[in-house]
Give the backbone structure.
Amino acid sequence: MPQSLATRNFAHAMLREIYEQPEALAASIRNYVTDGSLKPEAFAAVAEALRGHQRVVIAASGSSRHAGLAGEIMLEDLAGLTVDVEYASEYCYRSTHTLQDPGVIVISQSGETADTLAALREGKSRGLKTVAITNNAASTMAREADASLPTVAGKEKAIPATKSFTTQLAVLYLLTLSMARLRGRMTAHSVSSLITQLEELPNLLESWLEAWEKQLHSVAEHTRNARGFLYLGRGIHYAIAREGALKLKESAYVQAEGYPAGELKHGPNALVSKDAPLVMIATRDENDPDSVLRYEKTVQLMKDMQAQGAEIIALASEGDAEVPKLAHFTIPIPRASEYLLTILEVVPLQLMAYFTAVLHGIDVDRPRNLVKAVVHE
């Protein structure tokens, strides 16, 4: 955290923890990387647990499940695994019908969430190898799993997950690189190059926080009376759309839903109106043809929605000249590779949820009916 922010009097823990994300990400990366390479000892137990498995089940709830949805894309695209993401609360009831003989990855901020712990124990009872990604290396899940990958984000006081979520994405990315290397799908040089890009993110994120804070405060002021939002993303960015919508629901008590952008016209479009804005993720990695195609399809959808009279809030890559012509608000996102864009995209959505909650007079650190760890099903 910059020195100018170290003494800042943050009004809420949630805002402080949003600002702590560069530091948390850097700590998480250091835990798994040395001299631009993956630490073998950090992934030894994971390699042993998942070696030989072609399939993986990820079980998680809430924000952790959204991280799992992003992890699914990473692991399938880069490591060549078949991945199924389950609601932890459902896994025990239908686990016999999911992928056969998979490795099981559970994700939980606290490492104590009842239904996720039950999913872990269900997997173990079936003789499956398990991996736990938690923010507490001494948690029950971390102790009981065959392998533990702590996020080391530091204590998170606010109920809405912020730094615990972005560090989960970072750990899942590093796990993906480890599995890609283990499975012979990526050279050491390629892994090193991708790690370098990841290591650049904390400073990149830190440099944008204050500008995003000002911009998202203005967006929240403009949309404070909206009756609902639809968040749209394609590919791995669908997971971020889901997370952005959840942040708004749990923080500001505003109805919001995350959808794949291509599904908008298959029903949800009936909800779109001037007082029900669209939040559209329209970033792109110019070095990735699939990312460019995703972007082009999203821009075409934005044109259709503009013609329909929708109010659009867009996340677009820095310097994009097309999206600002179509959106009422355009949030610039610094350029990054396709899978790392997710970490950058979610932060403005966290700020939007935070300021909307504050404008509604809500104690954002302690939303009603919610607790940090759901320890009873």
User: Anything to note?
Assistant: The two ends are 37 Å apart (CA to CA). The mean pLDDT is 94.
